[in-house]
């Protein structure tokens, strides 16, 4: 029978490569770990590892076990945290995933009052996922996912927290600054700055440029909003950002222009597992998120 410690063993072997290092990580002796490895192979009737020099490499059966371990072990950890919090009568921990670069500034405004009102709750933030954001949520790596690209399926609940519009940010001296809206051809000679997101997920491409079979002179990515704005301010190119973020920055040298006559309208969602619909901690966080006005310019975080 495959047990939890077997999955931990497989994960540790894959991560550390040798019995010595894996045993040290799991706080067991090498002999005990070797014995568990042998019993596991006997239990499933197949080899799980083969040696490559001093390193252990997973077989196909071992790789299948590893995939299960990566999905199941976080569920164990999540359940234990919830039960421990219930026993201690405290709030515990909430793990937040984010697929929205500009949402970091908004999230700070949510987290500050939430942490103040819930002194027994910790918040963890994650923006890189082994299986993508939705995969991380369904595999219990995170408890909720902040995303502008929701996936509608029966095992998820999507909570819309705010609407916004994607706009083109240009220097106020740029010829585009005087236009009521831009057209695809307006960007053919421009350097375009965006956040480092796959092009297939960038609205400026999949909703505006690609349908018109139009490209840009150059596409560059930056993670930092302030740096993107500085590049536009100093005539290095144009950028696509949410209207609320541009309004918060209040840069006098920059102008926000509508993208297309109809604009590109979006919404930001908090996705949770359907099984967590009645989780009081998650419900409190979502309620707090709906109180934040993204169109308000924020000062110091309390």
Helices and strands in order:
Layout: H1 4-16, H2 19-26, H3 30-44, E1 49-52, E2 55-58, H4 60-88, E3 92-98, H5 103-117, E4 121-126, H6 132-138, E5 144-147, E6 156-171, E7 181-182, E8 191-194, H7 203-209, E9 218-221, H8 225-233, E10 238-242, H9 243-249, E11 254-259, E12 264-273, H10 280-289
Parallel strand pairs: 3-4, 3-5, 7-11, 8-9, 8-10
Antiparallel strand pairs: 1-2, 5-12, 6-10, 6-11, 6-12
Describe this structure in words.
By secondary structure, the chain is of the alpha/beta class. Helix content is 40%, strand content 24%. The protein has 10 helices and 12 strands. It has helices at 4-16, 19-26, 30-44, 60-88, 103-117, 132-138, 203-209, 225-233, 243-249, 280-289; strands at 49-52, 55-58, 92-98, 121-126, 144-147, 156-171, 181-182, 191-194, 218-221, 238-242, 254-259, 264-273. Strands 3, 4, 5, 6, 7, 8, 9, 10, 11 and 12 form a 10-stranded mixed beta sheet that branches. Strand 3 (92-98), helix 5 and strand 4 form a beta-alpha-beta unit. Helix 1 (4-16) crosses helix 2 (19-26) and helix 1 (4-16) packs across helix 4. The longest helix has 29 residues, at 60-88. It starts with a helix and ends in a 13-residue tail after the last helix. Mean pLDDT is 86; it is low at 298-302. Residues 1-59 form the HTH lysR-type domain. Belongs to the LysR transcriptional regulatory family. Keywords: DNA-binding, Transcription, Transcription regulation. It comes from Thalassotalea loyana. This is LysR family transcriptional regulator.
């Amino acid at each position: 029978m495959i047990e939890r410690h077997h999955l931990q063993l497989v994960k540790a072997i894959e991560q550390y490569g040798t019995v010595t290092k894996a045993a040290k990580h799991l706080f067991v002796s090498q002999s005990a770990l070797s014995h568990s490895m042998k019993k596991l192979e006997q239990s499933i009737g197949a080899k799980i590892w083969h040696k490559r020099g001093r390193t252990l490499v997973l077989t196909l059966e071992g790789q299948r076990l590893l995939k299960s371990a990566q999905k199941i072990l976080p569920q164990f950890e999540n359940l234990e945290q919830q039960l421990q919090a219930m026993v201690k009568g405290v709030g515990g921990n909430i793990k937040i995933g984010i697929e929205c670069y500009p949402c970091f500034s908004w999230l700070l405004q949510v987290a500050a009052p939430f942490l103040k009102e819930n002194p027994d709750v910790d918040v963890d933030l994650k923006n890189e996922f082994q299986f993508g954001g939705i995969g991380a949520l369904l595999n219990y790596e995170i408890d909720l996912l902040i995303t502008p690209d929701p996936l509608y399926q029966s095992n998820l609940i999507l909570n819309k927290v705010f609407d916004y519009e994607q706009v083109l940010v240009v220097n106020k001296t740029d010829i585009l600054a005087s236009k009521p809206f831009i057209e695809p051809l307006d960007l053919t000679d421009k350097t375009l700055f965006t956040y480092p997101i796959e092009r297939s997920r960038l609205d400026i491409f999949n909703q505006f440029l690609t349908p018109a079979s139009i490209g840009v002179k150059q596409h560059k990515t930056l993670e930092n909003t302030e740096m993107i704005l500085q590049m536009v301010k100093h005539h290095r190119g144009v950028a696509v950002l949410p209207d609320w973020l541009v309004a918060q920055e209040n840069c006098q040298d920059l102008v926000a222009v509508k993208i297309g006559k109809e604009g590109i309208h979006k919404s930001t969602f908090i996705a949770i597992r359907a099984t967590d619909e009645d989780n009081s901690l998650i419900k409190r966080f979502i309620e707090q998120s709906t109180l934040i006005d993204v169109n308000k310019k924020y000062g110091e975080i309390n």
